[in-house]
């Protein structure tokens, strides 16, 4: 997964 | 993290605690849809698989673990510990009518065609409709206990507050995630009818009842 697909919300 | 996102998370946490306390204190899960709770467990399980692949913050990890654990605890209370009080005759919504279309949609509309990303997308779509068995149950019985209304209100407010958070993030961080936003709007819209009843009835001290 690319870094911008790091889901930082719940 | 902004104040809207934090309020949304607190609201979500509160909803889960209200539900667990209601079941535990009254020793009954009457009026609670086990099917919605199964769908929520599926939502958290498929979304938080990134616990194994990426670390955001201790807060993020703690919340994810709590959401997964509490969803399975709720299912345990409904289907095992207090199963005699489970209102299965009124919990008749067909889960496959939600899970299958949402699964297809997750394969078609996603950010990236990888297993984890498809599961994340699936969980976002599924969460937006996971409350339908519960709302269906309330409409079938025509009423809900006041504590159940508080649970539904807190759960509905959580995604509504996230929408404000997304507007904020768009303006101040240039960040937006269309999949989360559209699903979040759908999720919040599904609660609108309930929000109206909550404000006009429950907040005035009456029980939530639907017109026949």
From TrEMBL, chain B:
<keyword id="KW-0931">ER-Golgi transport</keyword>
<comment type="similarity">
    <text>Belongs to the ERD2 family.</text>
</comment>
<feature type="transmembrane region" description="Helical">
    <location>
        <begin position="92"/>
        <end position="113"/>
    </location>
</feature>
<keyword id="KW-0675">Receptor</keyword>
<dbReference type="InterPro" id="IPR000133">
    <property type="entry name" value="ER_ret_rcpt"/>
</dbReference>
<dbReference type="Pfam" id="PF00810">
    <property type="entry name" value="ER_lumen_recept"/>
</dbReference>
<feature type="transmembrane region" description="Helical">
    <location>
        <begin position="151"/>
        <end position="172"/>
    </location>
</feature>
<protein>
    <recommendedName>
        <fullName>ER lumen protein-retaining receptor</fullName>
    </recommendedName>
</protein>
<keyword id="KW-0813">Transport</keyword>
<feature type="transmembrane region" description="Helical">
    <location>
        <begin position="119"/>
        <end position="139"/>
    </location>
</feature>
<keyword id="KW-0653">Protein transport</keyword>
<feature type="transmembrane region" description="Helical">
    <location>
        <begin position="62"/>
        <end position="80"/>
    </location>
</feature>
<keyword id="KW-1133">Transmembrane helix</keyword>
<feature type="transmembrane region" description="Helical">
    <location>
        <begin position="178"/>
        <end position="199"/>
    </location>
</feature>
<keyword id="KW-0472">Membrane</keyword>
<keyword id="KW-0812">Transmembrane</keyword>
<keyword id="KW-0256">Endoplasmic reticulum</keyword>
